């Protein structure tokens, strides 16, 4: 013990986990006062990180206030029944983990720990959270699952930086609209296994929400405003009382996993057939049929339908492989459903687009089969968005060079062969460039320097475009990178230097392995690895668990992780991997 304490006075970190301690040694509280005669007191540092997890500790002393430099305190998996008021006298405390104890009440003094960013009080016996928690305005990650909490304090409206909230397994009967209105930064929200009967009408405020889990409640409807949750990737509504779905759910363009099992749904809306889902669980509902339009949901890997009184489908189709069912549904689509509609001429569309661009500062000439852009459309030099996708353009118009305010340039699905470096270099404010699905030849080795400020780049479907060692790090602001269908056999190493990268899509390539270097991408929230040849994932990928909320793995010969774990979604997979990391 003396050796550990001595080392802690040098490093500022002390780990006393798994030592069967009944009490915290007094020397821990004494910090620098316990410097030995054989130590140089001027080299000693204050304790900043204290890990006391997995012991038998029954109480913490008020002497905790003697550790004012503490930033991390972990006393999880002990036998605490309360916390000392001195917890509020730790002004530097950023991470507090008191999970898996028997704590009955969190002291109001916690509100004075105003630096707190992460607080985990799950698996205790709490009936409420203190209202003073609202004073912890830096709080971004709050876990209070598996308690007996009946309501959340309204003061949490002040915690506008919350990105993750887990209140699973409590006694919550409602969620306040005031709270939802203030939590606009939420990316992960788990309120499953509660007593909720409704979802707040303003849930659409959560436009950054990626994972939303409300399974096992008493919810009878989903509000139409759900369409505002435009970042949603995983939505779990199983074991509720839903009798219908809002048509607006079909507007959730990023949704990949939708769990609706064990409800009372009588039909699946045609509008929801526009979703690009990988997994759809409709088992144990009251469906008697399926819309033929569901056959167009070709991204579906898994469609679960057991436990429904389906009368229009053979049981062998219902329990058989998903692609066969989708093919059957497609065959039932009426051939004449595309009624003839009179469309304006191409010239009319171009003229109208040019006129609109003056006021809207957005020019859209999408899907007009243009081989060149007419010079008359450049009426506004202040345009900030240009969409020229789905045309037959081979070279960019020189007029683009004068659009110095341009922020978004969409060139998808054209016939561009050469990297338009000269024009791109003349666009100093360009933030988003989409060049996917062009016959692009190899980009020059210094090509990315022309777009050094870009935050979104899509090169998908340009298999020959990447140089041998692409210098992705010259785009240091890059937040979204799409490299689908690039015939990649390995991930370009320079990608791992992109510290701001949030979305990386490498699906439909020929990747056989996943590098441990992925753990360096600490800002990553979405990682697409679908349709590769990956059979094993490195355990270190689990270290991305706090930030990574959407990991797409379907279409890989995955052997190292059981299908039951894969089907439970991203969080389950990452936790499984994290548990495999050698201690």
TrEMBL record:
Keyword ATP-binding: no
Superkingdom per UniProt: Eukaryota
Signal peptide interval: none
Keywords, alphabetical: Leucine-rich repeat, Repeat
Keyword GTP-binding annotated: no
GO CC aspect terms: cytoplasm
TM helices/strands, residue ranges: none
Pfam family, one: LRR_8
Record protein name field: Plant intracellular Ras-group-related LRR protein 6
Taxonomic lineage: Eukaryota, Viridiplantae, Streptophyta, Embryophyta, Tracheophyta
